[in-house]
Amino acid sequence: MRLGFRRGLIHGIPIALGYFSVSFGFGIMAVRAGLTVMEAVCISMTNLTSAGQAAGVSVIAASGTYIEMAVTQFIINIRYSLMGLSLSQKLDSSFNTAHRLVVSFGITDEIFAVSSAQPSKLTPRYMYGLILISFIGWSSGTLLGAAAGNILPSIITDAMGIVLYGMFLAIIIPAAKKSRSVLLAIVIAALISTVLYYAVPRLSSGFAVIISSVISAFIAAILFPVPEEEEKKE
Amino acid sequence: MSIVIYIAVMAGVTYLVRMIPFTLMKKKIYSRFLKSFLYYIPYAVLSAMTIPAIFYSTGDVLTALLGTVVAVILAYIGLPLIVVALAASGTALIASLLR
């Protein structure tokens, strides 16, 4: 089935809901750190990333240098390069440079997750749908969180913290059920990530994700090279 | 230090790390190893991002654990993303109300 704009919007609903809750928290945090509502929303609309924004706000709050800001963003967000590389192999032939330039703005953990789980090639329209609804969820959540963060009881915002992780599980578990080699990659990545989390608490979460996933995908690729048919299916 | 420049630096760096590989990589990769590597990357990334972070996602390990168990079961059955995601959150909410 062809992946059009509407399917992108529909597939983006869980992302938008998750984003709304996460960025709501970001809005509260940014205002507490001394930013205005406008500034918080402006950051969300131009960055569209959770960990990077949170780190950015703490650099601003500490009056850090611009270099410090650039390095922090680079380290936390370099995982998007890996995701972009992976997605670049999955694009429909209608994906020209202009489309790539726009869509690359919307490469996030969640958009990457949902789009790379699609069985067919990715079209620009599908990506625009997916990114648009996620962008709206992210920006509006920030606006409401920054403007009225303390209205919603924390018991609800706390429970919303698990939404995006639940979505990740819904992507990887069915895939692991079908393929033992995917299961292996998932288990190794989880193990390394857990060890790093407790053994090297100062390591940024972005780096931990890169180290864990590169090692695990490397091992899986050596032990179980993907057969030719499966590549065509992608 | 100007807030406008801070935001511009944040947005600029973040955009470039996303844009460069995605836009410039126009060749098809033929190496079987590299193809396999990129095939496993999404699953590995999602797994590393979820574990152990999910257990701390609600501010209470017990409610998060219950939400995780429900999510795993529903995902294993093969329910849609949104159902799994909201059920995990709903479970955590109910658990925290009962606690």
What does it look like?
The complex is a heterodimer of chains A (234) and B (99). Chain A is an all-alpha fold. Chain A has two domains: 5-161, no CATH class; 179-234, no CATH class. In chain A, 77% of the residues lie in helices and 0% in strands. Chain A is globular. The two termini of chain A are 13 Å apart. Chain B has one domain. Chain B has four helices and no strands. The model of chain B has no long low-confidence stretch (mean pLDDT 89).
Short description:
By secondary structure, chain A is mainly alpha-helical. Chain A is built from 14 helices and no strands.
Topology at a glance:
The complex is a heterodimer of chains A (234) and B (99).
Chain A: H1 5-11, H2 13-32, H3 37-47, H4 50-61, H5 66-77, H6 79-88, H7 97-103, H8 109-116, H9 124-148, H10 154-160, H11 163-178, H12 180-199, H13 205-223, H14 228-233
Helix pairs in contact in A: 1-9, 2-3, 2-4, 2-9, 3-9, 4-5, 6-8, 11-12, 12-13
Chain B: H1 3-24, H2 32-50, H3 61-77, H4 81-98
Features:
heterodimer; A: 234 residues; mainly alpha; 2 domains; B: 99 residues
Count of separate structural domains of chain A? 2
**Biggest sheet record of chain B:** none
Q: Judging from the principal axes of the Cα atoms, what is the shape of chain A?
A: globular
Strand fraction of chain B:
under 5%
On the 0 to 100 scale, the average pLDDT of chain A is 86
Radius of gyration of chain A: 18 Å
Uncertain ranges of chain B: none
